[in-house]
Structure formats: C-alpha cells, structure tokens
Design goal:
- The complex is a heterodimer of chains A (127) and B (375).
- With 127 residues, chain A is of the alpha+beta class.
- In chain A, 24% of the residues lie in helices and 34% in strands.
- Chain A has one domain: RNA polymerase II/Efflux pump adaptor protein, barrel-sandwich hybrid domain (OB fold (Dihydrolipoamide Acetyltransferase, E2P), Beta Barrel), CATH 2.40.50.
- Chain A has helices spanning 29-35, 82-85, 89-92, 108-112, 117-126, and strands spanning 8-9, 14-19, 22-27, 38-42, 49-50, 55-61, 65-69, 74-79, 101-104.
- In chain A, a hairpin with a 4-residue loop joins strand 1 and strand 2 (14-19).
- Chain B is an alpha+beta fold and 375 residues long.
- Chain B has 3 domains: 11-56 and 151-244, Gyrase A, domain 2, CATH 3.30.1360; 57-147, Aminomethyltransferase beta-barrel domains (Alpha-Beta Plaits), CATH 3.30.70.1400; 291-374, Elongation Factor Tu (Ef-tu), domain 3 (Beta Barrel), CATH 2.40.30.110.
- Helix content of chain B is 19%, strand content 33%.
- Chain B has helices spanning 11-16, 37-46, 66-73, 127-138, 162-167, 215-225, 236-244, 279-288, and strands at 20-24, 27-32, 49-52, 57-62, 86-92, 98-108, 116-122, 144-147, 152-158, 182-187, 191-196, 205-211, 232-233, 292-299, 310-313, 316-327, 332-340, 349-354, 357-364.
- Chain B starts with 10 loop residues before the first helix and ends in an 11-residue tail after the last strand.
- The chains are: A alpha+beta (127), B alpha+beta (375).
- Chains A and B meet through strand 4 of A and helix 2 of B.
C-alpha cells in the first residue's frame, strides 16, 4: 500500500497535503483499494465552507458508496473536475492526479492535529 | 468472517488467486479478483470469463409423471421442450408472486432409457425454499424429487471466445450447438459433464454441470485452455453488471414474492395455454394490464442510482429502483425500476431521489445491451 510521506491523514482514510497557501485533499491508496473500481464522484461547490467532520461529497465504486468527510474546517477553493469523466484516476493515482478538492483553512493547528504518515501506515497495517 | 458461511470446492483457489471473499446468499464467494470488476466485465464481453457459481442449486425430477409435474410447478410449457432443450422459467405462488426463477433442462433419464427427466437450476438464496415447495407439490404426482446441489458442481463460461475454447476440451462439436440447448459429454478423459448453451451475461457461452469432486481440475483446465485468448476468473460484482446490461432480472431485486413475471415483463417464460400454479392470477394481470411495470432508465444529470432509491415524477414518489449502477459497456449511469404503467413510456421524464436530492432521469429502451446471441 502506498503512503505519501508529505501528507497527513484522517481515520476515514483521507489525506491532506499543503499546497502553497491552500490544502489538497483526497482519499488514500488504502481507501481506493478497499472501494475497488471507482465509477462516480459527487463534489462540493467551490466557495462552500465546511466544519471538520462534515460530509462534502461521495465516492461511488461498483459495489459501494463512501462519504467524503472534511478532515479539518475550511472553504473549498477548487474541485478536480477532471475526475468527473475519469473517476478511475482515483484508483490509479490517489495521491497525485486523483486529488479531489483544494481548500483553504484559517487554523493551521487543525492540519497539525491530523494523523502523521508514519502513524497512518501503522493504522492501516493493523486493519 | 462468520463460520456459518458455506464454501465451494474452489474456495482455496479463489483465496490463492487474490479473490476478495464476501458473504453472498449464505456462501463465501469472490466478489472480484485483483483484475477488478470493470475489467472483468470487459474481459467477459470481449474474450471470455469463468464464473464459480456453485452456490446455485440443482433439483432433479424423475418418474412417469415428471413432465406433468414440472409443467404444474413452472410457468413455461415444458411439454414444448425437446430432449436436450434448456429454457428459462419461474416458480410462482398462486397469487402470481415469484418463488424463484430457474433454468429447466430436459434430459434422458440414465436409469430408464425410455424416459426423460428434468433438471432444474435454481438460485442459491432460494434453494431450501424451492426444494420444500417442489417436494410438497410432488406428493400428488408419480415422481421423485431430489436436491442434487451438493454433488453437482456448477460453473459458467461466458464470452465470445467461450464456445471455441470449450470445443477444444470436448469430444462433441460445440460449434454446431444451438442456443438454449444442452449436450452431455466426457471431458479430461473421464469427467461426465452437462453443457447448457445458456448463461446470464448477455454473451454466448455455457453453464457447466459436473461431479463436484472435479471442480478444481475442470476450472483449471478451462483457464489453461483459454490462456492465450485472455480468459480470466470473474467475480460476483462483474456477474451483476453483466446481467444488468441485458436487463436480466435478479431474484430479490427485479423478482420477488411481491413482483410478478408480468410486472417484470417476463411473459416469454409464461405459457398461458397450459395450467400451472399462479396461472389464473398472472392471466388476469396480463389481461387487465399490470398497474406497475419494470422499466429501464438513464440518469440525465450527474448521479448514480442504487437499489431502493425512490423514483419521482415532478417531485412525487411513484416507484422504486430495483438495480442501479454504472454500465461499463455503455459508459452510462443506468437503472431498472418498478413504476406505474402510465410512466413506463420511453422518453418519460422522471427523477431519482439520490441522498435527498432529485436527479433528472428518463425512461429508456430495454435492454441496455442486446445479448450477443440475439444479434
């Protein structure tokens, strides 16, 4: 299972990575593997604000639907529209081309409170 | 995973080959292999796929009154079937509700050369219910009914290359074999096998029945024989999308005790010119036209419909989705639903309620994928 050492993680198997002033967000390699072939994604709208734990969208695989949770509070600045027509990128490149949304957050301490790459690796190893 | 789940003879093969095992109808079955369900779907449409479907059940009906008896309990007129014919049919309750759907085979009785017997292939989830129903009704006929599911192994081999590959393993010439017919043969020197040119994927191919102790050997032999053509094992997820595209009903979704074959538009499998359990109710429904029918729909706006999502018309709930998914062959987001007949016309605008949000859809022609053998 691949891990991005530069990202931080949630227990719901989502990753967040700093990208300049903003943050990029996606699902982990572990999550895409568990879901299997992803065939649909429902995005939030740019400009929408969410609190940590809010549902911001849904990822649907052949057999299951998984909610996407906002791991830290923030405002959506961009969604990866490219995934609408090619959701399979979430399977092939979850940490790269498969980023789902970009958002800005006013409280950097929330990002620091997320799970480190090292701890996330341990967490998925135990499952 | 629960210890109550049954395992097929191929369980260890599936695990060793990366099969992701899930509970299904009381069995632990592979939902997919590392190939993944979308690719497995494509392999079956373009080359051929091999399916372990031994969870399915089989019943044999023998005796002097076998034909009369089977004709009384199934919807299709089996007296029209010739020796070695196979036909789709249903078991119905007197009110027309469906107990199960099945394939009926008419075969020579090995114990009595002058007689035919009937071989019924039934769904896994309904096995005990079906056996009890058939056995209970058999009392008034001179027949013997036997649940032969345990000793009979069942696999499906489906796809455009399946006949040619299978033909290399059999002694009989399969290329001349008609759709919905069966042959009996020996393969791998001494394994007796029943091949039905049937299946539930919309592709040409076979359903194979043989003694359970040869499961691994036969499975491996077919994979090996079809290696160059790209034959792969296929899991339940792709099996579902493969049957969905040609709009083949799945029990518990498009068929149930409260959904009749008339509503599910399966009258090709119902012979009204003979008597059978459920005939009167079904005939009445057919003549009066059913209040609701099964339709196909396509989402017009972005969304993915799933089973049990409400179907709306101008915001008012009118029906329910029976199966919904992404269709790999058409790249569409499609579904089947039960709706009142007045909304069943092709082109009718409907909405599917997806997570409290109505998403625009329209009724489209069924099937979404015309079976290869009908083209």
């Amino acid at each position: 299972m691949k891990i991005d050492p530069n990202a931080r993680y949630s227990k719901e198997h989502e990753w967040v990575r700093k990208d300049g002033e903003n943050y990029l967000y996606g699902i982990t390699d572990h999550a895409q593997d568990q879901l299997s072939d992803i065939v649909f994604i429902e995005f939030p709208e740019p400009g929408e604000s969410f609190a940590s734990g809010d549902i911001i969208g849904v990822v649907e695989s052949v057999k299951a639907a998984a909610d996407l949770y906002m791991p830290i509070s923030g405002e959506i600045t961009e969604v990866n529209e490219h995934l609408a027509d090619t959701p399979e990128i979430l399977n092939s490149d979850p940490f790269g081309e498969g980023w789902i949304v970009m958002f800005k957050s006013s409280d950097p301490s929330e990002f620091e409170s997320l799970i480190s790459a090292e701890d996330y690796e341990k967490l998925t190893g135990e499952e | 995973m629960s210890n109550d789940l049954k395992r097929t003879e191929l369980y260890q093969w599936h695990v060793d080959n990366g099969g992701r095992m899930v509970p299904f109808a009381g069995w632990e079955m592979p939902v997919q292999y590392p190939t993944g369900p979308v690719k497995e779907h494509e392999i079956t449409r373009q080359a051929a796929g091999l399916f372990d479907i031994d969870h399915m059940g089989q019943i044999s009906v023998r005796g002097p009154e076998a034909e009369q008896f089977v004709n009384w309990i199934v919807t299709y007129d089996v007296s029209k079937m010739n020796l070695y014919d196979a036909h789709y049919a249903l078991f119905c309750y007197a009110d027309g509700g469906v107990i199960d759907d099945l394939f009926v085979y008419r075969l020579p009785d090995p114990e009595n050369a002058d007689r035919h017997y009937f071989f019924l292939a039934i769904n896994a989830a309904n096995r005990s219910k079906d056996v009890a129903w058939v056995t209970a009704h058999a009392k008034e006929f001179d027949v013997s009914v036997k649940d032969i599911s345990d000793e009979t192994y069942m696999i499906a081999f489906q796809g455009p290359n399946a006949p040619e590959i299978m033909d290399r393993l059999t002694t009989v010439d399969l290329t001349q074999m008609a759709r919905f017919s069966a042959v009996q043969d020996l393969i791998l020197d001494d394994v007796p096998i029943l091949l039905g040119r049937t299946g539930y994927t919309g592709e040409d191919g076979f359903e194979l029945f043989f003694p359970a102790e040869h499961a691994v050997e036969v499975w491996k032999a077919i994979l090996e024989e079809g290696k160059e053509e790209g034959v792969a094992p296929i899991g339940l997820a792709a099996r579902d999308s493969l049957r969905f595209e040609p709009c083949m009903p799945l029990y518990g979704h498009e068929l149930s005790p409260t959904i009749s074959p008339v509503e599910a538009r399966l009258t090709f499998a119902v012979s009204f010119d003979k008597d059978f359990i459920g005939r009167d109710a079904l005939l009445k429904q057919k003549l009066e036209k059913p209040g609701r029918v099964l339709v196909g729909f396509e989402l017009v706006e972005r969304g993915l419909a799933r089973e049990e999502y409400p179907v709306l018309h101008h915001g008012e709930e009118i029906g329910v989705v029976t199966t919904g998914m992404y269709s790999p062959t058409t790249s569409g987001y499609l579904g089947m639903a039960l709706v009142p007949r007045e909304f069943s016309k092709i082109g009718t605008d409907i909405e599917i309620q997806i997570r409290n949000k109505p998403v625009k859809a329209k009724i489209v022609k069924r099937p979404f994928y015309v079976p290869a053998y009908r083209r």
